[in-house]
Amino acid sequence: MNKVAAAPGKKSINKVVLAYSGGLDTSVIITWLKEHYGCKVVAFCADLGQKEDLKAVAEKAKKTGADKVVVTDLREIFAKEYLYPMLRANAIYEGQYLLGTSIARPLIAKAQMEVAKKEKADAVSHGATGKGNDQVRFELTYLAIDPTIKIIAPWREWEFQSRSDLIAYAAKYGIPVTATADKPYSIDRNLFHTSYEGGILEDPWMAPPETMFTQTTSPQKAPATPTTVEIGYQSGNPVSINGNKYSPAYLIEELNRMGGAHGVGRVDLVENRAVGIKSRGVYETPGGTLLHAAHRAIESLTLDREVLRLRDGLIPYYASLIYNGYWFSPERELVQKLFDGAQENVTGTVRLQLFKGNVTVVGRKSPHSLYKKEMSTFEKGALSLQNYAEGFIKINALRLKV
Predict the structure, then answer these.
(1) Which residues are CB-neighbours of 76 under 8 A, at least 6 positions away?
(2) Of 324, 346, 345, 326, nearest to 335 (Cα)?
(3) What is the CA radius of gyration of the chain?
(4) Which residue out of 27, 102, 125, 186 is catalytically annotated?
(5) Could you confirm whether 25 is annotated as catalytic?
(6) Active-site residue among 27, 134, 137, 279?
(7) Is the C-alpha dihedral spanning 337, 338, 339, 345 positive or negative?
């Protein structure tokens, strides 16, 4: 890589910790930070299950000019302390998005701040654009942890207007990147999902190319025979698959494999970003889709009607908090306690059938089931409610009659 000289007048930053992915944006940012601030750069890479060769990513950061590289395995923390609480809340943004990128950013930012403290850095940086949600998620987390930290957001400072400009800059300074001018997709993958933005996807009318997908088989090409899977729950958390217990991260990986093989978990939507614009995103969340279906099914047996109604009314609010970067807010923590309080008896097993992109609940059981066959059966010997029904109906009809 060609060396760059620091720009005059920008010496106030001595060391910065960059949230580094090895992609186009953050590869360019290492060089740009040195050019414009003349500072030391620590590249921080979080292993969230993105299925990359992180040793190669770390080596790339060093070749690109990073003074130090820190790689941290956060997969189990991500699953247990971030994904599971979100799944206990059944959080879905705008009815479709399972929040795979949204929930990852606060963990990355928190771990990045821990590295900054250890390295005695006076600034942190990220590669999120000035139009996107991630800048908000990263920076709200930074400031919740340390209100005095300096934040460098290159996309809000530099002269570049597009990823094509970044590709040209990378070529100028010999920065190795994999993006090309004719296919500038933005891809983000972690343990929970893969997201795609940019390129042909910026036209909401255009279908995503089948070659783009990496986690899921096309439903049309999925097996012609369905697969059945049983997911066991304990107090709202998934703990087993087909009777075998797994750690949170491994359980999600296994469900990703099973769901992906049957084309489960694809979503194509136009969403409302935190900054007030709409964007089109395509997502693959195979394991998460199975877990949402299974959790709803076990709750249908174990949650009281009014508790379920109250909780469901708060889901859009809770999902918006995650989407908009408020994971470390007091309101999110308060609502989480309410949701978790309802999960004490959400224990049992759900049987799902996977077939051609679809998930169907075909069985559920629980030691805490509120479903009573003797009360709901249509057969003889059922507990009779007929004697109470007429009065119940008349009372509820009073306001209608008036």
Answers:
(1) 247, 248, 249
(2) 326
(3) 25
(4) 186
(5) yes
(6) 134
(7) positive
Confidence band, pLDDT 50/70/90 cuts, at residue 386: confident
> Would you kindly state where each structural domain of the chain is located, as residue ranges?
15-184, 189-365
The pLDDT tens digits for 346-357 are: 999 999 999 999
pTM: 0.93
Find the catalytic residue in 105, 137, 189, 311: 105
Q: What is the pLDDT of residues 1-38, one digit of tens each?
A: 544 555 544 558 999 999 999 988 999 999 999 999 99
User: Torsion angle, CA of 248/251/255/257, rounded to 10 degrees?
Assistant: 110
CATH of domain 15-184: 3.40.50.620
231-253: per-residue pLDDT in tens? 999 999 999 999 999 999 999 99
Question: Are 15-184 and 189-365 equal in CATH topology?
Answer: no
Is 186 marked active-site?
yes
Three-class SS state of 76? helix
Count helices and strands in the chain by DSSP H and E runs: 13, 14
Architecture of domain 189-365 in this structure: Alpha-Beta Complex (3.90)
- Give Cα separations from 119 to 29, 32, 225, 310, 393 (angstroms): 19, 20, 54, 45, 69
**Distance between CA atoms of 175 and 243, rounded to whole angstroms?**
49
- Residue 376 makes CB contacts below 8 A (sequence gap 6+) with 382
d(CA 24, CA 186): 9
Q: Which residues are CB-contacts of 250 (< 8 A; sequence separation ≥ 6)?
A: none
DSSP assigned state of 130: T
